[in-house]
Amino acid sequence: MYLIDNTLKYNCMTRNLLRHIQNNRLHKRICLNIINIKIYNVVNLCEVLRNEIPEYSQDETTIHDDSCNAINSQYGTYIDFNNKYTCQQVMYILNSISSVPESEHNDDKCKYLYYWTYQRSLQKNINYDVALNLYRSFLNTYFVDHTDPHICKNYMLPTKDIILKRSAKLIELYDIINKNSHQFDCTCAKKCSDLYISYLGECQNDYDYDCCSELQSFKYKYDKKMESIDKCEGGKKILPSAIKHDLHVIIIIPMIIVTILSFLVFALYKVKLFVQRLNRILHILLHILLKKKINTIHLYFILFT
Predict the structure, then answer these.
(1) Alpha-carbon distance 200 to 215, whole Å?
(2) 164-214 per-position pLDDT tens digit
(3) Rounded to an integer, what distance in angstroms lies between the CA atom of residue 69 and that of residue 95?
(4) Which residues of the chain have pLDDT under 50?
(5) Residues 249, 204: contact at Cβ < 8 Å?
(6) What are the sequence ranges of the domains in the chain?
(7) CA count, 13 A, side-chain hemisphere, 256
(8) Sign of the CA dihedral 5, 6, 9, 11?
(9) How far is CA 275 from CA 2, 29, 126, 285, 289, in A?
(10) Contact 123, 86 (CB under 8 A)
(11) Is the dihedral of CA 123, 105, 203, 162 positive or negative?
(12) pLDDT tens for each residue of 90-123
């Protein structure tokens, strides 16, 4: 009875813990893994997407020229006028995305387009907030004349700000480390190290597991490249881990183990009872058989003596 009570108690505790987990980030992470969605998968496609963009025209368009000129005027103090037809090119890119069925790859294009806006359209040292406003201006301009269910419309929502900015920051890290694919020097290492540390704090403050996971992948790449550099002042030899221990995982694993063990003990207890009962039955049967045998021998002895 004690074992049964313990089993029920552990089962109840486990169910309550699982119910609690369903309402926190761990549940979100498990769900994303189950349906195989990677929020920041764009970092693995940035090279492909970067090579695709030059294929799109920068020519003026009769549809969007006035709107693009208005955007250039509004952001004149920020825009790099060496790339003053970027707006027109964005319109062509958005049009190409809408002409293809909705897919994860197209969603990544929307994210990469934000980073490209930051990198291509604006002068250096402009922050991601200005880039976000400019990106939204491009989207607004396009959607005034296009009412199709475009996947990039999702990124008009303020709730997508964090995903866009963190995607861009991850891409920036990889752009820096891959900029000179045949040379990784101390200057590059220091820049990567400083950016990584700043982004690490951001991802761990609210523990965005997907972002931290991509940072962890970057850490492995950085640490590998640092093996070729003996000394680098300001550049860390090994970057700190981006994955921190999840308290819920630490709690639930022992609970699951205890629950399984309680079931095993209960099962073994039942098996022991069954074996004992079987032994008693066999003992009784054996006793009956022996008694019958003895009676038969005794009867035989009486008859023939």
Answers:
(1) 7
(2) 999 999 999 998 888 755 678 888 899 999 999 999 888 878 778 888 889
(3) 19
(4) 1-15, 17-37
(5) no
(6) 38-178
(7) 7
(8) negative
(9) 20, 46, 78, 15, 21
(10) no
(11) positive
(12) 888 888 886 666 666 788 889 999 998 888 777 6
Q: How many CA atoms lie within 13 A of 18 on its CB side?
A: 10
CA angle centred on 260, ends 256 and 262, rounded to 5°: 115
- Contact criterion met (CB below 8 Å) for 65 and 73: no
